[in-house]
Amino acid sequence: MRFFRKNKLVAPVMAAVVIFAAAGCAEEEKKPTFTGDTTKEPEYQTNLNEISPAAYSEVRGLNLEPGTYISIIGKDETTAFWKNVKKGAMQAAEDLNAELGYTGGDKIKVVYNAPSKSEDIDEQVNILDEELARYPDVIGIASIDEDACTVQFDLATANGIPVIALDSGNNYPGIQCTVKTDNQDAAKTGAYKLADAVEREGSVLLFAHDSKSETAKERTESFLKEIQENYPEVKVAETVYFDKMEELKKSIVEETQPELPEEERLSAIEKMTDEEVVLHYLEKHPEVRGIFGTNDLTTQFAVSVLREAEKGEDITVMGFDGGTEQIQALEEGEIDGLAVQNPFAIGYASVIAAARTVLQEGNEAIVTTGYTWVTRENVESESIQKMLY
Hints:
14 helices, 12 strands
């Protein structure tokens, strides 16, 4: 603390000091006072740090009108990945309302909806129809089919409702912004990690969660490209698309039991399970040394089938996502590596992108939210633990 001696001041000088102090008071009030305490970062800051550009991790300056309605539509409501997308979206809403001082009916309203069954395009379209009827200020959607919903998006445009994309993009030309993982890079990483694990030779299977979404297409194409261009001794024996299981069952029955009468053939197709489809390809390609899954469900499915067939020790499994089941399988040695995404950041950045769209502040075409490669060796590190879901 500084001390001043009491001196006699002539009146004009004292008046000038008082006037100067009064004039400067407002300036002082604008400046934060340092108290010696450091600002505590939120526990989810690690997730936000992965967002690029960084502006999509920031709520400051987004002066939305009270009651602004942001609708976010995901791919499903049950898996750990999508639960964390929702968690990120809700946190962004909370942060926006805290920043703007909105309470009660003035709060920014962020609503997350998704099909109850994973990858159910019909239910997702129905949800989109219902949300459009509520006239939100903006819609964010993770398209199950990148070519679907053109009619709905035209209707949104006609009613002045802008659309952004999250996780999976859409080919509709009016999409304002897409928030997602860098799928090509993550799948490329998975490809060379698996190739190295099988000593750069032999066959592998690729399990793709669908054949229609942008996410699945980007991961599948990038994985295949990396293997074909840089690992000539590794062969992708089959790419199994999980939304084409019925077609695969029909093909397998016709291939293995061509003599069956039509009625019995139809019965055999109906009775065949998804697990039996995968087992068929494992038997067809006994040289397979690795499996890669393009999302959490396909990766975990590979683990379950190999566990049941008692082939886990012979075949290396790698894939996407870091839910509880995947991490447990990783720790128990049933999975060797995972491209763990950042779904919390996808949800959070999607709300920021939606807010920027409403305010007409302009958006980047692509916003990425990061991923990290997780193994048994690094899974316990603090930075990795904060990214798991």
